[in-house]
Structure formats: C-alpha cells, structure tokens
Amino acid sequence: xxxxxxxxxxxxxxxxxxxxxxxxxxxxxxxxxxxxxxxxxxxxxxxxxxxxxxxxxxxxxxxxxxxxxxxxxxxxxxxxxxxxxxxxxxxxxxxxxxxxxxxxxxxxxxxxxxxxxxxxxxxxxxxxxxxxxxxxxxxxxxxxxxxxxxxxxxxxxxxxxxxxxxxxxxxxxxxxxxxxxxxxxxxxxxxxxxxxxxxxxxxxxxxxxxxxxxxxxxxxxxxxxxxxxxxxxxxxxxxxxxxxxxxxxxxxxxxxxxxxxxxxxxxxxxxxxxxxxxxxxxxxxxxxxxxxxxxxxxxxxxxxxxxxxxxxxxxxxxxxxxxxxxxxxxxxxxxxxxxxxxxxxxxxxxxxxxxxxxxxxxxx
Length: 364
Ligand code: GDP
Fold this sequence. Notes:
Elements: E1 2-7, H1 14-23, E2 36-38, E3 41-45, H2 49-58, E4 62-64, E5 67-72, H3 87-95, E6 99-105, H4 121-152, H5 156-173, H6 188-193, E7 202-207, H7 218-230, E8 233-237, H8 239-246, H9 250-259, H10 266-277, E9 280-286, E10 290-297, H11 302-309, H12 311-315, E11 317-323, H13 325-330, H14 334-339, E12 344-346, E13 357-362
Parallel strand pairs: 1-5, 1-6, 4-10, 6-7, 7-8
Antiparallel strand pairs: 2-3, 3-5, 9-10, 11-12, 11-13
Helix pairs in contact: 1-8, 4-5
C-alpha cells in the first residue's frame, strides 16, 4: 500500500491530526476496522462515495474500501540531521514513505508553546526542509565513498548511481532540494531507489484554528504561495475540529461540519490531496459478495492492476471485462451495462481508468 509520513516541528498538531485521522468513524469503515500496526502507524480507509453507490446497486454484502497508511514521524527538530533529539531514527522512517505530509502551525495560541517562539509556517517549513537536505547530503557523501571501489571495477550500475548522486549533491549544495533535479526516463527507477528524503513529494498541511477552518488565514495563504512556487500541494485543516469530529457518530459529524461551514471532513481532503500528489487512482471490483476499491498508480496497465489483487492474476492475465463507473451507474449495474453494450473486453495494453469496474479473467 501507499504510505504518507506526517512530519513537522514539535507542537504544530501532528499527533492531534494523526489521532483524529485514525480514530474517525470514516477511517474505521464498516467491517474493516482501523488497525494499529504500531502506535504511530495508522491504516486508514480511503473515503469514496462511489464505492457505496456501486455496492447499493449490486446489493453487495460487504463494502471494502482501499487503504492508505499514515505514519506519525515525530521528533524532527532543528539539528536532527546531526543526530540531535531522536533525529536519525526519524530520518530513517521518512526514507520509507511515498510522500510527506508536512504539518505547519498556522494557528495562534498563547497556551501552546512554539519551539521558535513565533508563528511563521514558511520559516518552519524551511527549518524542516534544511534538516532533510543536510541529511541527504550526509547520506550522499557516505554512499559515494562506498561506491569508489565498484567504480574502479567499471560497474555500470555503480556508475549510474554515482552520476545521479553527484547531480543530487550539486543541487543540494546550491541550497535546493533534490527533487529539483531533472531525471530522464531511463534513470527514473535508479533515482527512486536512492530514496533521497528531498525527492519525496510534499503536501503541506496548514493547521489553522477552528474559526479559520472554512476560509484559511493569512498564514495558510503564505503557505499556499510557497507550495505553488515549489510545485508542491497544500490543504487547510483544523486538527482540533478533526479531533472533535473523530469522537462523533457519522450523522452528528455531518451536522457539526455544517455548523462549521465545511462540506466534508479534513480527512477526505487530505487523502484526496495525497492521491493527487502521488498520482494515484482507484478501480473497483463489484459483486454480490463484496464491493471493493483498489489503489493503482495513474497509467497502470490491466495486468499490473490485476496484480494488486493477487500476483497470480497478473501472471495468468488473459483479459479484463471493464465497465466505466458512470456507465455502471447509468445502466443500473452489470446486467444493464452488458445489454447496453457498455461492457468492454480489454487486453494487456489497456490503461485502467479511475473508477473502472473491473473483472479479470486469468489462467491458473
Ligand atoms: P505535535 O507535537 O506536533 O504532535 O503537536 P500536538 O498534536 O501534540 O499538539 C500540541 C498542542 O497544540 C496540543 O496541546 C494541541 O491540543 C494543540 N493544538 C493542536 N492543534 C491546534 C489548533 O488547531 N489550535 C489550537 N489552539 N491548539 C492546537
């Protein structure tokens, strides 16, 4: 599955947000409860209204949403890259995530201490980014030193790694994150395998006060401009509101949201933003037994999409029977779609589309 790491300076609202995300009724969807893998790892159901509509039409007995994992990576402070605080262990945690949700304090509250003694989310973002850049520089130097012997042996893979590491090093020494390096298609895989911290896409989470939840504020506007300049994304959330929602029953939560002038919980927006950032999409399998959502990367071909369900589906792939979501709804289900000629047979080169209802045929 896909993993998002929640980072940020101390006291910006990370734990509040993480707890709300993983305890909310939506996250605990039906018969697939939220499970705690470790205290700081939460497996959250991805909310998707389409799945409920499909299940209603097919009279599915079970609804199984797709999942996204959030990791609360606390302890990142100034000096983390030098092993201060609990630094290094946390940097190792960040290495393993697909994207970073960077929580920024955009609320004022005299009772909550700010580590730097002032509210300045853009400066905070730079503090954390600097630590990540320093950590990358350090690991690059170590890795390049380790490659020296292999390079003398004319090892092609080592040459590629060293060339990419050198490009990243140059960028970082210029004071910019490694994600600014332009990488060719041929190098894309090796580049990703370097697992540099500053190549991970970043979603800035502006934690605003309850009053500002619907509108944002001056602080979140500054973050929005910074994110746009960097090509990163941002969302506005009030961790306090999310915490309160997580304690309510779904219909109470709906009323509470309305009172706050919000259309949907922050969880939904956060996950959607994460999906966009990671270029993820959802396809469905629907039948009387269950309606289920599956996550793929945008552009995934039918056999690899089948492989998300089971490796054998990919290996023995013959073809897929596909109904677009809108057709499935308009034709009131599979039978109707078939009769209307909306069920397509698709082969190995079919690019699965967001919302497709899929049925895979395969050899065992
Ligand atoms: P972390 O250190 O980043 O995990 O921060 P916490 O989630 O533990 O929050 C630190 C403190 O800030 C706690 O006392 C929270 O209740 C408080 N806090 C979090 N979000 C908000 C907010 O949006 N507004 C206000 N006023 N306080 C908040």
